[in-house]
Design a protein that fits this description.
single chain; 320 residues; alpha/beta; Rossmann fold; DNA polymerase, domain 1; 2 domains; seven-stranded mixed sheet; rRNA (cytosine-N4-)-methyltransferase activity; SAM-dep_MeTrfase_MraW_recog; transferase; EC 2.1.1.199; rRNA processing
Length: 320
């Protein structure tokens, strides 16, 4: 590698499962981030003439990816917007994709350099929007949500077991002063949870920040329709891979793939099959692929990653 390119999680596994089968295939990198996956695919499969469309809703990170991938400028294209919009109004200048990759994790840039409050390593405003041109911020949610709704958000989006205690303290404290920074929120969460919870292997505010980020960007609510749109666009014989980073995302991906893998989608108690269905995909990763111990030791945040891959076998999902 000739550049200092960020190494994404499960890189070798992703390169192998989504390798091109022939010449001049098209790959869609749906969360291009800093360009780590795309760089490695373009470099490894140079001789096959692989081309990539990189998607991200954030203009800033598109600029970073363009710089990273500048040596491949004749083989890479960029789309700034949501992946769902790209697939539902698929550009006519592109052939149908042979490979689609979703890396659902938030990029290193967003956590460490964007200044939008995705993490608590620096004191930043609680924005958390991937698309800063519209939408509510995390600070808005903290300021406006009723206590019960805030607690439900923390539990449903991140499985935070102390969601009610955290929400109660936030609501109490916001009556005294607005809560708008990462350090203020992290400190409140630490106060709300038991001492034993503060001694875990992750920061006690990790799930709270995750839950707010998911809510701000609609990550879970967007995912089912996004997967369906992507699979509809994929060329038969093509492969779709998804890297998720927490159990809620992974459950959505797993259930969608299992549904598409069924010959019959009728209710289980139906006496006869009426759907006349045939499976749309073959599942290539039965239990999902997780990082090896050496990768986790080198990059601890990778411990929660899981890769699932399917191969499209029918085109019924492409019909309107």
């Amino acid at each position: 590698m000739t550049k200092n390119v960020h190494t994404p999680v499960l890189l070798e596994e992703t390169l192998e499962f989504l390798r091109p089968k022939g010449k001049n295939e098209l790959m869609i990198d749906c969360n291009i981030g800093e360009g780590g996956h795309s760089y490695n695919f373009l470099a490894r499969y140079r001789d096959q003439g692989l081309k990539i469309v990189g998607i991200d809703v954030d203009n800033e990170i598109i600029s970073i990816a363009k710089e990273c991938l500048s040596e491949f400028e004749d083989r890479v294209y960029f789309y700034c917007g949501w992946s769902f919009d790209f697939f539902t109004d698929y550009p006519s200048e592109f052939k149908r994709p042979d490979i689609i990759l979703f890396d659902l994790g938030v990029s290193f840039y967003h956590y460490k350099k964007s200044g939008r409050g995705f993490g608590f390593g620096q004191d930043e405003f609680l924005d958390m929007r991937l698309d800063t041109s519209s939408g509510i911020t995390a600070a808005d949610l903290i300021a406006k949500l009723p206590e019960r709704e805030l607690a439900d958000l923390l539990f449903n989006n991140a499985g935070e077991k102390y969601s009610r205690r955290i929400a109660a303290l936030i609501v109490n404290e916001r009556q005294k002063a607005t809560i708008t920074t990462t350090s203020a929120l992290a400190a409140l969460v630490e106060r709300a949870v038991p001492a034993s919870y503060r001694k875990g292997h992750i920061h006690p505010a990790t799930r709270t920040f995750q839950a707010l980020r998911i809510a701000v960007n609609g990550e879970l609510s967007r995912l089912p329709a996004l997967l369906e749109a992507a699979l509809r666009t994929l060329e038969p014989g093509g492969r779709l891979g998804v890297i998720s980073f927490h159990s809620l995302e992974d459950k959505i991906v797993k259930n969608f793939f299992r549904t598409m893998n069924k010959d019959c989608t009728c209710p289980e108690n139906a006496p006869i099959c009426k759907c006349e269905g045939r499976r749309s995909v073959n599942i290539l990763t039965k239990k999902g692929v997780v990082p090896q111990k050496t990768e986790i030791e080198r990059n601890p945040p990778s411990r929660s990653a899981r890769l699932r891959v399917v191969e499209k076998v029918l085109d019924e999902v492409a019909d309107d």
